[in-house]
Amino acid sequence: MTKSRIISIYVFVVITFIILFARYFYLQLIDYQLWLKQSINNYSSTILTKSNRGAILDRNNVILATNKISYVAAVLKKDIPQNANDVFESLAKYINYTDLDIKKFNLQRKSSKKYDWIILKDDLSDKEIAMLTSHLFEFPYLQISARTKRYYPFKDIYSHSIGYIGRLSQIDQNKLQEKALSDFYLNKDYIGKSGLEQYYESTLRGQLGRKTIKTDANGNELALINNNKPQDGDSIVLTIDNNLQKIAWEALGNRKGAIVALDPRDGGILAFVSKPGFDPNWFIDGIGIDDWNELFNDPQKPLVNRASQSTFPPGSTFKPFMAIAALVLGIRAPNSTIIDPGYFTIPGSNHRFRDSYPYGRGLIDFTRAIAVSSDTFFYKLGYDMNIDNADYILNMFNFGKQTGIDLPNEKSGVLPSRKWKKDHFKNDKYQQKWHAVDSVTFGIGQGLNNYTPLQMAYATSIIANNGRAITPHFLDKIIDSRGYVVESYLPKITQLPIPESDFVFVKKAMQKVITEGTGVSISQGLKYTLAGKTGTAQVVSMNRNNRKAKFSGANYRDHSWFIAFAPVESPVIAVAVFVENGGMGAAAAAPIARKMIDFYILGSKLAEENQQYEKFTPQYQNDESNIVENDEEKNQ
Amino acid sequence: MMKKKINKQIKLIRNFFAIDKTIIICLITLCAINIVVQLSANDDLIRRLMSDIIYISVGIIVLFIFANLTTGQIKHVAIPFYVVSLIFLVLVLIIGVRLHGAQRWLNLGIRLQPSELCKLSVPIILAYYFSEIKKKYTWYNYFIGFILILIPFALIVKQPDLGTGILVFFSGFVVLFLAELPWKFIIIALVGFILSTPIVWSHLHEYQQHRILTLLNPQSDPLGKGYHIIQGMIAIGSGGFWGKGYMHGTQAHLNFIPEKHTDFVIAILAEEWGYIGVVTVLTIYLILILRSLHIMRLTTDLFSRLIAGSIILSFTMYILINMGMVSGIFPVVGVPLPFISYGGTATVVLMCGFGILLSIAKQNKY
Question: What's the pLDDT tens digit per position in A546-579?
């Protein structure tokens, strides 16, 4: 045996031991944390339990959004028979289903995985449950189970304020991941998609229950590691008055429009209507692409939130605010007068800005100009006013900026200014500059002015309050599942630096609108003092006579506006009513406001109706009675 | 007279136990570790633990018996031992016991795994063959040597038991290597091996192909083919430096580790005793190997040298393959960890091997 062979043996032994020492060093010391985590994951598995979402209530505890127990017939995706239509046909003997159910079924089927439950039919009636369970042997794959489902009892009335929840989308999941909130949701959980459901998501959702158990390799439960019970979401109580909301909704009839009523004393929203709406119950489990397209392409645009996400020219309802600006800036005195020939011309120009009252009113003072809505007076006022100064004052009334209400995606509207024109008209050299014409149309709330009905209601409440601005809000308080108040909303108050006398003047003038001005038609039998202002906003400029024919459809009729507050001495309600293409403000919008304020101040038989709606009753935590949806998730 | 007689007897007995202390201490320590680890690995399977202890006891008795044989006696049994193990291998294929899809065991009152016997009979016959040739070896001698290896190898692979087959082949090949098998033969064999890989691959059983594929990327199929490897690695890695504590291994006691008392026993040891435990065991192995190499170098007898070299290198190879396999650097082949895996024929055969080494050590002295 030569030396080289013996050396080879030693080399082999040394290499072997170096490999093994190094390999185990690497696994046990360098990658230790990684393997330790995997070994813990191996034997612990977490079962997540859903929490109950908080309810949404009106100021009298009427339930506006809640969880309902719904019995569903469901099937695992992998168990769906080849011919799914046959299943429906044989099921028809026992349950009623609609095309919508089949549509929903196919929709879920497309977007789910092998072991997901797919709902054949939800909201089973007692009779259907009885029939199905006694014939269950025919459908061995079928499972009937109870689950909680979000329910909006008032359907479309609150579609734009309360909004709706829906299944987590990929986009939602990405957002949650960014904010490190994924732990609050199950795999196919629901999340607030719009409105208050979205805004108060973190309050309403509650906390998932987390039960961690120790298991062996075969998944047998060996021991409980820890058990965090689900925490129900808190409920929110709104300042909304359901009865007032219903009256506003019904008063609009089948017209399109928006109504916002708020309490000037605390900024609480009393009614918030955008019509037409949609039934938010449809959206909970997702609606089909066909239904979505139908809603989306509906010429009535039911998906558009007209109250806080759409802006419109305010028309003459803008005049009281112009009047205050003029008084503050000293452009007009309370006793100013002009001679009204029925039109206004810019000095050195021939163009006549016509008054809606074409005959001319002769000598007219400031108060009367507001009461009868004299365009000539406000044309001249706009012309005389420096736009920069006017913007400074009007900005205080929140024109052109968000009110800060507790709703997502609020529009800020347009308060025209030199800067706005410069930024907005990038390619139009002429429009980039501020012209005298702009000031003139600005004076009567036409031209570039664009505000949401919410902004108009808010601005009205500021006048009603003599300059005390209280940010509008839906939330009154947050209560827990046992009914205890967790948090009360604190109003955000600012006082505008405007003399009270200016408000008193304008308020008197607005009262005259009702008693002897454009709003006189709603003054009959009035049992309290009411101040308001009508508005008729042009959709297209009718001055261009040649285009008249082209724009003469219903969609080009003027918008009807009415803002009001009452009682004048100590206002308790401020309203902005907007009727899209409603025509004259006095004719369409004003009667609606009168109806609402009548009800709110005088009360009515409807108060008794209060009894018939389901009221929120505090639940005392009782595990047996809580029906929760389980979702098992094994940590990988 | 009487006194003389008694003295002679005492001397005989003393002689019987007068063997290399380093090796015997290492072996006893390993057996003790075996019992400690098996106690944890078998949970409460008392019966299996008892039979483990019986195997170890038998092994130690065999160790002492072999330690007192002379090289001549071993040479005498070389041919019969080889023939008997071949007959057993053929019998296994005919009347063997089937377990886990392979026919590896013979039921002769006790369950016997004849392929284990070959780990000893093959190197002995080769060492005998080469020590008996007094002139310079020719290619013909090496050819005969290869034939002697390939017959049992083929029979074992047929069972199928590729792992043991390779080890048997290796134990024989080591003898050829120490008998100055020319480097060019080795290189030609190596090239031939690499070239024949695709052909061998196509003849491998599907589960063997899977194991090799899984080894290359165990994470690709964590619940299927890669499960064993990953669970073993988790157990080892999560043990850390100090280990999780005796009887506190979660991987072991919650049944995440497959075959935890046999092939994957190092995973349990590493999990419960940490890197400290692994280093201890490896150190004992290393001392055992170095001491044995020392014994080999001291002997002048060619047969003894060849057989000792084969025993030592095979032993090193078992450790490398088993610990490499469990820690994910080799494919999963059924190779137990010497002395620490659950005892059985393998332990007894290993004891025989070290018995032969001890007898060589003893003869060096005189």
Answer: 444 444 566 678 889 999 998 999 999 999 999 9
Q: Which residues contact A314 (CB under 8 A, 6 or more apart)?
A: A445, A449, A451, A456, A535, A537, A561
- pLDDT for B160 equals 78
pLDDT of residue A179 exceeding 90, the answer is no
Residues of A with catalytic function: 316
Residues B306 and B227 in one domain: yes
Q: Residue A279 in contact with residue A155, Cβ under 8 Å?
A: yes
Q: Which domain holds residue B97?
A: 78-204
Give the chain B residue nearest A33 (alpha carbons). Answer: B238
The structure tokens 């979702």 sit at A631
Q: Are A257 and A275 in contact (CB under 8 A)?
A: yes
pLDDT in the model for residue B43: 67
Tell me which residue of B56, B72, B9 sits closest to B304, measured CA to CA. B72
Specify the CATH architecture of the domain A48-238+619-633: Alpha-Beta Complex (3.90)
CB spacing of B238 vs A36 below 8 angstroms: yes
Domain's final residue, options B147, B169, B204: B204
Chain A to chain B Cβ contacts (< 8 Å) = 118
Report the distance separating Cα B34 and Cα B28, nearest Å. 10
Mark whether B36 and B86 lie in a shared domain.
no
Q: Do B254 and A5 touch (CB under 8 A)?
A: no
Beta strands at A190-192 and A165-167: parallel, antiparallel or unpaired: antiparallel
Domain A242-281+303-604 grouped into CATH 3.40.710.10: yes
Nearest to A1 among B289, B305, B323 (CB): B305
Cβ distance A222 to B270 less than 8 Å, yes or no, reads no
pLDDT at A454 over 90: yes
Contact A85, A131 (CB under 8 A): no
User: What DSSP assignment string belongs to A401-420?
Assistant: S----SSSS----B---HHH
C-alpha neighbours within 13 Å on the C-beta side of residue A126: 0
Give dist(CA B60, CA B359) in Å, integer: 14
What is the count of structural domains for chain B? 2
Within this chain, do residues B152 and B89 fall inside the same structural domain, yes or no?
yes
Q: Where in chain A is CATH 3.90.1310.10?
A: 48-238+619-633
CB contact under 8 A, B233 and A42: no
Tokens of B87: 């007959």
Chain B positions touching A13 (Cβ under 8 A) are: 286, 289-290, 293, 312, 316
Task: Indicate where chain A has its CATH 3.40.710.10 domain(s).
Answer: 242-281+303-604
